[in-house]
Amino acid sequence: MLFGRQFFEGEQSLPKQCFGTSHVPLSPAVRAGDMVYVSGQVPVGSDGVVVTGGIAEQTEQVLSNVKAALALAGCTMDDVVKTTVWLEDARDFGAFNAVYARHFPKDPPARTTVESRLMIDIKIEIEAVAYRPV
Question: What is the pLDDT of residues 38-57, one digit of tens each?
Fold first, then answer.
């Protein structure tokens, strides 16, 4: 038996689907079967510029970007089962958490939150995994 493949008569695997475009080599969202993976979203507006303000404003923009990436694959925030959050400064956790809680008011997803130096001068990045059967 080969792991990762199913060999049942008549069963076909679903192809990977990529959604959206980016100026860097990644897809904003990728569907693999019933799972949708959202690339790390950063606090940039549609103009590609980092939003002004502190952690609350940046968290709002990031979660708005997560929502938009999910929509490309036919998902909503209610479909999110796991997020990973990178904060530039752990002291921002309380303010971040207050904004995050508003976006996941009921049955929030599993979450990992860490402090990390980020690739550009921002305060937060969030990736998400959603489950939405095909």
Answer: 999 999 998 989 999 999 99
The structure tokens listed for 98 are: 């207050």
Sign of CA dihedral 117, 118, 121, 123: negative
R_g of the chain, CA atoms, integer Å:
16
Rounded Cα–Cα distance for residues 90 and 114 (Å): 8
More confident residue, 22 or 100: 100
Strand residue runs (E) in the chain: 17-19, 29-32, 35-41, 80-87, 110-115, 124-131
Phi, psi (rounded to 5 degrees) for 48? 80, 10
> For the whole prediction, is pTM greater than 0.90?
no
Q: In angstroms, rounded to a whole number, what is the distance separating the alpha carbons of residues 118 and 2?
A: 38
